[in-house]
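Schema walkthrough. Field components (list of strings):
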Amino acid sequence: MPTHKLRVIPLGGLGEIGKNMMALEYGNDIVVIDAGLMFPSEEMLGVDLLIPDISYLLARQKDLRGIVITHGHEDHIGALPYILSRIAPPIYATKFTRELILVELKQRGVKTGAKLNLVRPGSRITLGKFTIEFFSVCHSIPDSVGLIIHTPLGIVVHSGDFKIDYTPVISEATNFSQLASLGAKGVLLLLSDSTYAELPGYTPSEMVVSDTLDRIISEAKGRVIVTTFASLVSREQQVFDVAVKHGRRVFIVGRSMKEIVSMALKTGYLTAPPGIICRLDELKTLPHNRVIVLSTGSQGEPTSALVRMANRDPSSRVQIIPGDTVVISATPIPGNEALVSKTTDSLFRQGANVIYDKLAQVHVHGHGSQEELKLLLNLVKPKFFVPVHGEYRHLSLHASLARSMGIPKDNIFVLDNGDILELGQDSGKVVARTHVGVIYVSGLITGELDNAVLRDRKLLSRDGVVVVTIAVDAENATLAEKPRIITRGLIDTGGERKLIEKGRDVVLAALDHDKRRLSEPSFVDARVKDSLTRFFHEQIHRRPVIITVVVEVGKTQREPTS
Amino acid sequence: MPTHKLRVIPLGGLGEIGKNMMALEYGNDIVVIDAGLMFPSEEMLGVDLLIPDISYLLARQKDLRGIVITHGHEDHIGALPYILSRIAPPIYATKFTRELILVELKQRGVKTGAKLNLVRPGSRITLGKFTIEFFSVCHSIPDSVGLIIHTPLGIVVHSGDFKIDYTPVISEATNFSQLASLGAKGVLLLLSDSTYAELPGYTPSEMVVSDTLDRIISEAKGRVIVTTFASLVSREQQVFDVAVKHGRRVFIVGRSMKEIVSMALKTGYLTAPPGIICRLDELKTLPHNRVIVLSTGSQGEPTSALVRMANRDPSSRVQIIPGDTVVISATPIPGNEALVSKTTDSLFRQGANVIYDKLAQVHVHGHGSQEELKLLLNLVKPKFFVPVHGEYRHLSLHASLARSMGIPKDNIFVLDNGDILELGQDSGKVVARTHVGVIYVSGLITGELDNAVLRDRKLLSRDGVVVVTIAVDAENATLAEKPRIITRGLIDTGGERKLIEKGRDVVLAALDHDKRRLSEPSFVDARVKDSLTRFFHEQIHRRPVIITVVVEVGKTQREPTS
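Field assembly_structure (string):
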């Protein structure tokens, strides 16, 4: 008989796409699934990235049995370099995932005591009261797994990120027969990927892309440049395969593409016949119709190889030649649309023929659509259901799918990060919340996001800053010199001088009222701010940040004492 | 015999979607087509909107015969309030368009000497050597027209923004028979809308949306809230029609929606049986299944009616009730995706069932897809072709379509804003460029965008600002007090004090080297900037904007002389 309830505590990844982290807790045993990062939205000015808040785990370190990783995408492994300096439980990952984690830790120069254990689909590990089995799922990166977690209360299935592809290009098809047999016996809880819960129907197979690539490359008279996510190894395999078929050689550009292709070739996730991959200095020796370039830059990243080609960056070793065909074999991640469009436009301007998602099926995504989500629900037949990995609308729509398939409303939980869901054998309830803040990484600073700082940056970004220096001769209750005004980011140089002169008069007039109070810096500060705020609003309808510096001059000074 | 060439000079709208403005010039006669605005991209910090550069027109004012407007969208009329203070040629617009221009001028408080002339589809005006005929086109706003422009060199056809809809909900179907007969006689030049040149096939008819709305509203058990573009009057008509059919009343919320619906009812573009539109205070008296709310906010605009509902803004007179169905009958304009997603998520959180473009066909757009563009090219059979209204990729793909239909490559011109294309009867060539700057409106300032200001705002937005005050006792070559450091937007309050103290020591050490030069402000400034830049980079990997204020104290001061 179970003596505890099972606690399900999402620490990241719910109500957002990114920074996935889910804790399962039974008595004194906690296991964590994934530790991802997230890229900030536009309004989080100056923030490099976001990671999950692990305060809950820090307070329970002695109970933390391990972190299990489902696959090697940044939103599942990217927080490890930041959290492993504070906690160091054993980590469990499949081979390809483990390689990517090692790269990540090395890049950030992180040394950790955490042990990085290798697991395989089909293998089993025991972490406290949890026994975890890994099963293959099909996703847009090799070696992705879902989890079957045996707990004292019953079986928990975690889908990982998945789609159903009966004809995957590499890696195994999602292993559903095992899940079906579990479903027949009874599963307590399903946690399932909601990313594409908006999309009706099925996600097409990777094979569809092979056909498109084959057609494009057979029709292209010149060079073909293909860009995709570096970790989308199956796409790279497709490129190698069509290259072989059409007698073209492949040139690889972009740091992450080179690294991952090389790692995938070494570890056997990618196969290429000898001689098909060439060194860049051989590029000029081949006729154009014998060339495929495989490049980074599918998201329009400003320093990527493709963007440097698009911008005719002289440091780029590959330059666009009119007649090149560029295939953008990816879709923009939300937030990257403008960068990708800009890159596409620049490539067209260079005379390239660009083929992208709107024009042909050059990409299929890695998450299941509605019919696939329903199939999983149907096979697993869980008593309780928690949609994971999605914005609130995705979770909500996934919950609706589950209801439409007969799971009672009270057994479906659309959770927020920080909710503590307690499941018994027959019922579940959110019993409490643990604080999860927005933890940012910005340069070398990591901390909980302070809205005051963001508000200041927002103000500064719109209307800039005005620094006003007031030198006061306090003894004589006069200004020792005219107010000085320096602006940055307020107005262009053309209009600046006149505006500043007027502003100076405004400050003078404001301080003239009550000369005896010139010795009170807070009085001077308030007067300057009030008068200039009004002035800039009236003159140009702008509200810059105003900083007043009040310096007393003309009295006996002392040397700094530090 | 024509004595001049025809000049085609795009002043805005090419290589971008927005701020459309095209000048046609023959000898001493210039006519301008449209005068639109554009919303800035994210990186144009602090910019409210962009308008075309009219320097070319200012230099040729005496030749400017008029501005012809194709329809009332902001990207075609929105610059009028800003340019009519500088030029005041007669303006020609259809009735609905004219009403919107009047609203626009009134809102901005613009008084102009420019005459606002009314034209109708089928009517003709003569402007210098140009005779212009207006023909109906189907678009997402009533009273849209294309132009048939008779010039001494031949006929120019301008498509306006158009799609082909054989079953439009209101307004006339695009009038193509006239174009076909022109095509048979010979057309010199076609200027055609490229916005959706990426999309294969045909754009669906508005009627498709009627069916979807009908189904949603017949199935909804509670209230239905529909949001769309205020100017999309045909969609509003559809909402009224289904309301009548299903015995629901319509409540209108949001300023622009109220204004445009009221104007469209008055002018006859919209018809609603008496009693179908109700006042908001009647909302509570009706059962939920008798209510439709028609609202602004389809782009997630932060102050719109729908967003205030989504955020439970207490000032909103309509609040979401669980069980409400919200129909977002629009797609996000590029750049607005995140705002729309956020609004959708908030509505789901309130318990609404939200139906949007990914889930059902609740919107069709207003521009023709590839087959429609080909049909127009086929009917008009122009000698020369200039794709207009699109990003570079759209223009480029539209040009490819034209080539595939047999227009010779040398007769197709993918232009940039500012290009001066000269057409003779048999050949054409870009002969020169006129300068077109990026003209911004920011509060009350209008001017050419200064990259230095934008660069400063970008820096400020990332890492904030640091103001360092150095009080120098020049006579004694000492610092009169410790350096003062104020930061805004750099670091949260928790970490600030310690960092600033350290920074102060760094500045002191940097100035200590060469005390005799303390009287040189530029020396002090350079030392402070160098040392602190290095310090912040080492400590926190950030590069704030550093402003140094050097004040001399302790010598005889003088009263300000202003």
